């Protein structure tokens, strides 16, 4: 290589070194005078507050001077000061981003028409985006009220939940993107919710119940407040028996049902109803339910009455001429299923026959008598003793009354 070539190469190297130095100085100066946008954002959000929603699985940062408002059990939040600068809405059970976008645009157009706004003035625009590695859509449109700024919304779906971000009504797009850049998905921590259930224990099939008697309907339950108990005959309801209050507290775990005499046995035929079931369900969530596994039956009582009366029983020590003209003397159980009730009636001394009947309605026992006068032998009055001996009753305390039929 000759001398000329050496000088030329040296000059070229010097020129490259000088140019590189100048470029480096320029870059440093630029960075000093105009810091990069990312660094500005990091500096600005360093002192921001963090909102965390473990139930719906996300967190986001927001300016310290902003307030945050939760609505709809945390599925909608608003962030801002005087105006709403940012909002997040969670829509559950959404699988299609395209369908979501279509529905959102339809809602927007309907709202505009309801406000008598020309849809073309909304300037609706959609863009496909990438959000944290997920496909997303960005919507922009002009606010409804005159002079309002453009509004931006971003839609993304994760685990069948749609997350909708909106710039609100402040018109601060820069702040919207800054806050959106801090959004992160986190692990969902849903509390363990005890599964609600009801299990009917009795009657569960094969029982034979009697009209007028009282029986316990029993169940086990968890996570249930108020329940309703209904009697079903086949596919037909025979009525709700937890009346008049309709519901009872599930924690009681039993309900004593006194089968009324008005309970129509097999639709009034008097024959047993062999295909009855108890249907029990939670009042506010009727899908929490259970029923008897098999059929039970209800039939009329097998009670029998033995009635006797005696004329002019002076041993009772009752004046026959003063009120009351009838009454109950005493009642007792002759054995566990035979109730004996002694009564009196004041009437003519002789020439009368008295007949007795009774009606049973739950715990109410009505004794009835009917007098048949064949011949008035004397005008005097006396006290007649009536004895009602009823067998086949459930052994319990009955309210007893005596009436002249």
Give an account of the 3D structure.
By secondary structure, this protein is an alpha+beta fold. It folds into 3 domains: 38-185, Protein Transport Mog1p, Chain A (3-Layer(aba) Sandwich); 201-299, Immunoglobulin-like; 304-404, no CATH class. The protein contains 4 helices and 27 strands. The protein has helices at residues 3-33, 37-45, 97-114, 173-180, and strands spanning 49-53, 58-62, 67-71, 76-80, 84-92, 125-131, 134-142, 150-158, 161-166, 184-185, 197-202, 208-210, 214-222, 226-233, 236-240, 248-249, 254-258, 273-282, 289-291, 296-299, 304-310, 326-335, 338-348, 352-361, 364-373, 381-391, 399-404. The strands form 6 sheets. Strands 3-4-5-9-8-7-6 form a 7-stranded antiparallel sheet. The chain starts with a helix and ends with a strand. Residues 3-7, 25-39 and 266-270 have low confidence and may be disordered.
């Amino acid at each position: 290589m000759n001398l000329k070539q050496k000088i030329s190469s040296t000059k070229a190297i010097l020129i490259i070194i000088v140019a590189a130095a100048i470029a480096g100085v320029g870059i440093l100066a630029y960075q000093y005078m105009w810091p990069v946008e990312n660094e500005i954002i990091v500096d600005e959000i360093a002192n921001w507050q963090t909102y965390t929603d473990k139930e719906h699985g996300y967190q986001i940062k927001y300016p310290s001077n902003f307030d945050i408002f939760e609505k709809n059990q945390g599925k909608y939040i608003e962030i801002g000061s005087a105006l709403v600068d940012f909002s997040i809405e969670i829509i559950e059970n959404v699988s299609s981003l395209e369908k979501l976008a279509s529905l959102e645009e339809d809602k927007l157009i309907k709202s505009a028409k309801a406000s008598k706004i020309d849809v073309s003035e909304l300037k609706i625009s959609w863009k496909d985006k990438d959000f944290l590695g997920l496909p997303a859509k960005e919507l922009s449109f002009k606010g409804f009220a005159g002079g309002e700024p453009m509004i931006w919304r971003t839609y993304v779906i994760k685990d069948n939940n749609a997350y909708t971000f909106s710039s609100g009504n402040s018109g601060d797009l820069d702040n919207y993107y800054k806050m959106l850049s801090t959004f992160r998905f986190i692990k969902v921590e849903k509390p363990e919710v005890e599964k609600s259930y009801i299990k009917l224990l009795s009657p569960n099939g094969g029982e034979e119940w009697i009209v007028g008697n009282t029986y316990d309907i029993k169940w086990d339950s968890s996570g249930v407040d108020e329940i309703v108990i209904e009697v079903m005959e086949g596919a037909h309801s025979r009525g709700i028996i937890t009346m008049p209050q309709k519901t009872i507290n599930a924690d009681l775990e039993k309900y004593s049902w006194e089968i009324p005499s008005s309970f129509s046995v097999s639709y009034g035929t008097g024959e047993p109803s062999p295909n009855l079931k108890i249907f029990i369900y939670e009042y506010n969530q009727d899908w929490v339910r259970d029923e008897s596994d098999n059929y039970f039956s209800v039939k009329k009582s097998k009670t029998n009455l033995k009635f006797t009366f005696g004329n002019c029983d002076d041993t009772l020590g009752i004046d026959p001429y003063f009120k009351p003209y009838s009454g109950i003397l005493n009642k007792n159980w002759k054995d566990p299923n035979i109730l004996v009730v002694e009564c009196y009636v004041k009437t003519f001394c002789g020439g009368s026959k008295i007949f007795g009947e009774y009606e049973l309605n739950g715990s109410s026992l009505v004794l009835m008598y009917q007098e048949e006068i064949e011949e008035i032998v004397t005008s005097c009055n006396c006290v007649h003793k009536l004895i009602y001996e009823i067998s086949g009753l459930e052994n319990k305390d009955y309210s007893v009354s005596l009436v002249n039929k």
